[in-house]
């Protein structure tokens, strides 16, 4: 099978064009199924704000070869496919999603594109390819022909270590190819060392869009508070570094904390650092099941932004995802992208 796509027919588009296609291609899907109980009641003059979930996982542990990641365990399913997500997400006002690959198997990038293609709720894939490998350039170019492929994820997981490879010439060559192809880099899991590596990478490649995953989960300790504050101050001025305010509900001192007030100060700080234009919503479904079901994850985000200006809510819940991932409305992608 080939991962090659149809040619990109959308061409350059401004926010008006993107929004028009977005409203036709994805918002309507969610709006039809929204229930009054699932959303804060809008004023008569305002439509509900659609949500683009910038961080979900898809996998199928029932495949003959299995899958290297099948969720957090417990009651969470070992199969997570677009139809499973859609059932939970649409009633909450979610109209589109970006899938972040949690498998280090190269072939699972193709598997993800194949299962995403039939569902127009799926807007993009953040894949898993290794820039330090000699075949990275060929693999990236092939995958990038599919408009659903929006970038890769690399950090301090799966045995990868961004803090070390940014000193590697081959890795940096791969990062420059990412810039040439207008793709983004997700990084996880957050630590002060990883944030410091993001600063170094941004210094060397300021045109590379970098997206920090799950930063609210990083609760500084007394030992690293100064280093944490310093790196946040540095990130404040780096306009091509985005942050997912995902992982809002997380463990604090060993306990799952769902009370928004316990997290509010940290969220206020991150918005102060990254500003209105570089914050994104992400649920981390179904990995988030270890902390809370999807409706609670969405609910706490809505509660936090409920008293914020509507313009900021729109930026966080969907508009900033366009700037970070440059996803295309599905009507612009066409059919038969994965042959």
TrEMBL record:
The UniProt record lists the keyword Hydrolase: yes
Pfam families to which the protein is assigned, alphabetical: Amidohydro_2
Amidohydrolase-related domain ranges (all copies): 52-326
InterPro entries found in the cross-reference section: Amidohydro-rel, Metal_Hydrolase, Metallo-dep_Lactonases
GO molecular function: hydrolase activity
Keywords, in A-Z order: Hydrolase
Disordered: annotated span: 1-20
Family stated for the protein in its record: Belongs to the metallo-dependent hydrolases superfamily.
Alphabetical list of PANTHER family matching this protein: AMIDOHYDROLASE (PTHR43569), AMIDOHYDROLASE-RELATED DOMAIN-CONTAINING PROTEIN (PTHR43569:SF2)
Protein name: Amidohydrolase 2
Biological source species: Rhodopirellula europaea SH398
